[in-house]
Amino acid sequence: MSATRMLVLGVVRLAGEAHGYQVRRELQSWSADRWANVQPGSIYHALKSLAKDGLVESTGTEEGGDGPARTIYRITDAGSHDLITMISDALVNAGSAPDQLSAGVALITLLPRRQAIVLLEHRLAGLEAQVPAMEHAVGSYPDMGKPAHVSELARFWLVSIEAQVKWTSELLERLRAGEYDLVD
């Protein structure tokens, strides 16, 4: 799954109907080009690919000003199902790539609150389960015949996991307190 594909599908879902330029403007307003490396060309490619896969469908065209006519898309039932699966996978998987996790968080409001909480609780459990192994790795790399400085990687991974545990815990607290408008 690509973060761009998830984000494009999500923006079409949020808008009801949208053409590529609208999707591009919305994602730029989210700064998705920075945290998910969403580029203009990848948006149009994703729309065509999503249409080919039956996840969005054309509802017509509109004049594009100085450019060609713009194809307007809406999400299909299959697209809605796949989108929820993509968001859920990004949130629950403790090993999600940062761009996928970021896309999942950007679209979390498309989930029911209870579902988002359960997914993040599973993510938190997965992250917490990694901490002891990383703590062990920090001290054991030199004993395993690896150069001592390589243990800095284990320290980096440990601090990264601990930061994700903290952030996930805090997000769960905010969701449980009713912050953010989810689809409840």
Number of separate strands: 3
Our count of helices gives 8
**How do the SSEs run, as a string of H and E?**
HEHHHEEHHHH
Integer count of domains? 2
CATH architecture of the largest domain: Orthogonal Bundle
- Percent range for helical residues? 55-70%
What's the Cα radius of gyration? 20 Å
* Biggest beta sheet summary: 3 strands, antiparallel
Distance between the termini: 26 Å
- Give the neighbour order of strands across the main sheet: 1-3-2
Task: Quote the average pLDDT.
Answer: 93
CATH superfamily membership of the largest domain: Winged helix-like DNA-binding domain superfamily/Winged helix DNA-binding domain
The helix-and-strand class reads mainly alpha
What fold name goes in the CATH topology slot of the largest domain? Arc Repressor Mutant, subunit A
Mass-distribution shape? elongated
Task: Describe what you observe in this structure.
There is one protein chain. The chain is mainly alpha-helical. It has two domains: 3-91, Winged helix-like DNA-binding domain superfamily/Winged helix DNA-binding domain (Arc Repressor Mutant, subunit A, Orthogonal Bundle); 112-176. 65% of the residues lie in helices and 11% in strands. It has eight helices and three strands. It has a three-stranded antiparallel sheet. Helix 1 packs across helix 2.
